[in-house]
User: What shape does this take?
Amino acid sequence: MREKYWLWVLLVGLAIGGLLVAGCAAKGPQTVKVGVILPLTGSEAMFGAMEKNSFLMAYEELKAAGKTNIKGKEIELLFEDDQGKQDVAKAAAEKLVNQDKVVMLSGGYTSSCTKVIAGSAQSMGIPFLIVTGSADDITRSGWQWVFRGTAAPASKYTGALWDMMEKVIKPQRVALIYENTDFGTSSANAFRKACEVRGIKIVFDQAYEHGALDFKPMLANMKQTNPDVVFAVSYVMDAAMIVKQMKELDLNTNLVIGGGAGYTMPEFRENAGDASEYVTSVSLWVPNVAWPGAKEYFEKYKQKYGSEPDYHGAQAYATMYIIADVLGRAQDLTPEGIRKALKETNLTTIMGPIKFEDWEGFTNQSRPTTYVVQWLKGKLEVVWPENVASARYVFPVPRWKERG
Amino acid sequence: MHRYRIWAAVALALLALALPFIFNSPYYQHMLILILIWAALGTAWNLLGGYCGQVSFGHAAFFGLGAYSAGLLYLHLGASPWWGMALGPVVATLVSIPIGLICFRLRGPYFALAMLALGEIFRLVFLNWISFTNGPRGILMVAARPGKILFYYLALAILGLALWWSYLLIKSKFGYYFVSIREDQDAAEALGIPTTRYKLYALLPSAFLTGLVGAFYMNYVAFIEPNVVFSLGNVSVMIILVVILGGVATLWGPTVGAAMYIALGELFRAQLGAANVLAFGVLVCLVILFLPNGVVGEVDLFKRLMGGKRRGDVGGSLGSP
Amino acid sequence: MALLGQTVICGLLLGGMYALIAIGMTLIMGVMKIINLAHGSLVMVGMYVTYVCYRAWGLDPYLGMLVAMPVLFLLGCVIQHFLINRLLEVESVLPENQVLLTVGISLVLTEVIRFIFKSDYRSIATPYTGEALLVGGMSISIAMAVGFVIAMVFTYLLHLFLTRTDLGRAIRATAQDREAAQYMGVDARRVTVITFGLGSALAAAGGSLLLPLFYLWPDIGHLFTAKAFIITILGGMGSTTGALLGGLTLGVAESLGATYIGMGYKDVVGLVIFLLVLLFLPHGLRSLVRR
Assistant: This one.
């Protein structure tokens, strides 16, 4: 019995002691603290880790260039794990602002966590610069403390695609499939509206739950409607399952277009193998875009961490550059001073030019530059807009049986 | 003895009222509110799961219904989600009646799994019924909201209500009937206890309180989506975890368990970086292995073994005050 | 017609592999009467073992399975012997604290794997990945068909083991009535340890069969835990033929739901069938066959 008693004492002691430790943060040299909230555990941890690495890589480069020193104080990044859960994200935001006294917040990967962090930042009056969270409502709520630079609103991922649709693809019968997440439904809504305006017929329209093993029932159904173009919004591995199973079903269309995210990642190529060839996708970023530094970032990351980054990493990397730029320009390091400096941002990053503007009901939202990319001979090439294309598009794509 | 208890209760109440001023930082206040939320959820679950022995793996259904009652009022009628605090518990209770009548025919693991399935069905329906619930995009409330102190006292009131009801129920004949159903349902039935009806008497307040907390959660966090509020892993299972950590079928167990769950979870998260969930998992295993009846349950047992008094109250099968 | 055929074939093939995972769970639930929420995590660990065999030694996943099964058998025995059995001996108010222990175990397994392999998505490319036979407008994936056949072989072997060997009979006896079995001289502790090991090994086998078709990351376990429950209840606890039947039923039901109602509702179809079976056939689909 005694040992149990001691365990109990130990637990209570641990809880009290720990809370005290957490309360009295060690006082080091004066720094300018920036809080970054990312999912470092849980099912989104892969992207959280990639974004943290990119933040750190950009930080080191900036430090070497002497840009992390703001009026005699060093910028210090404080990373917090949100576990992909919204209560935890809220707790992390409260802790960073009230305990650690950060001057601004950044991060935000999943839409739900980003919404909660944004809401907290708005009510506390602390600037929040979003890295990835792309739900439309976040910058459509009139929140003046919330800024989104490197991420496009989910409904605006398809800008370049519609240009290409009108000039090259000219679809007649489109099939639309999407994951039932915030990103998926927002993208699908925007796509439906765009089709309606142009009088394009949607012959198949279905949502699915992320993580399914077998998409064949849905795809077999789709095959019967005989679409000429498929537009699919999917998470990384769902994307691979879908194109593999299209091949197995011998489902031929003129083009398969991914709505961002999943269809552009190295893991997609690895899992889908040959089936990924000619798959086209909209994208915010690819390593070989024209923006200065993009290619170098990609190579350096690959060398340093041993894996290929995708646009999520680039978003984090560019965000770190924006943060250093903003803090360097801010008149004073109060929330209001930083907010003003954010508003005046005009910086070209590896994600393109960043300017926080108010447009179409959005507040503090940078206008995204989007691309259409295509997997050609196992490499992701930019095919549209034509003036920045790294390769010529293939359209219509060969049928499965005609491929070698 | 009795007077001592009253004074202890008064002191505890005063401490609870003073806490947000002792921890005068929004971060600690947020932690306190989370503790109260989970303590209330645990206390509600304990009525059905702990005392009555009907282990539900689907309480997220009632939590989510409460939250969505508030959210949908706001979304469709533009009404203040505060009205949800009135509607949420009623909806959760009404839905719990058919659920109870159907599922109480099942026993043990079968009941647990039926509730699990129901919770998941609610999640999937709310996720896919986009025209009504806004689906995975959830409901985001954009409105000025009061400060944390008000939320704290509101949450405290909810926990107070939950504890008060639990106390009344387990002191009355209901409590004895609940425990007899848990310990041996056939014997209880043979003694003439209408078991299904009494299980329902445990479920109704449990669902009501869970729905109330759900509606409060919508007001407090201001954003809900089906995968968050109907979550099996992060709501249903964690409620049970809170109760078992603290002590099943004890009045204060869920509150102690909630304090441990939130305080230790946050401590690990803030201090251990990416290893925090691992540390928490190890801790859960250790507590259950060494304190299988939870912290409060084991303390009671400890007191009894040390020659303490034996009282006739209902509680754990091992006797507890 | 081709659509219906395609749907049913997909459902059956997938159901066969679900069944293999669920048989592991039905054994554990039958003997120990506990809900094992760590089952999906065991599948995940098994998949990682197979993955490592493939990456390190180029072992085909169907051979890697033969490595993963003994490894997971040992892991299962260790979990049962040092953790769960300890808890069975203590008196507690609710036996469900074992369930919470399995939640803890599943958290630990997931996070340990995350520590070793990070959260990256991993997959393997075998020559037969993505190959399919086209029969009359219906496509049959090679990897799925092979997986299905192997799953059926394992089920049959297990059935023989449970009905023909002493140990197998001891497991069944313990599942039926633990105390009576003990009076008959069955070492119930040993039986529970072996059962959990066996259940884990079968989970690993199911995982290995899915690896060439699917992909892998540390949180994949959750996908399987819920499915395994549903099948276990559909089939009736502790019954291998029941689990087989349950797996095939769930597979076909989900497939039909996905084709004719909508992909987003396919899991609802499975869950509703699950509830109906719980309510009207409390001993599972097996009781339909017996009647």
User: Anything to note?
Assistant: Chain C touches chain A through 41 residues (CB under 8 Å). Chain C has a mean pLDDT of 87. Residues 2-286 of chain C form a domain with the ABC transporter involved in vitamin B12 uptake, BtuC fold (CATH 1.10.3470).
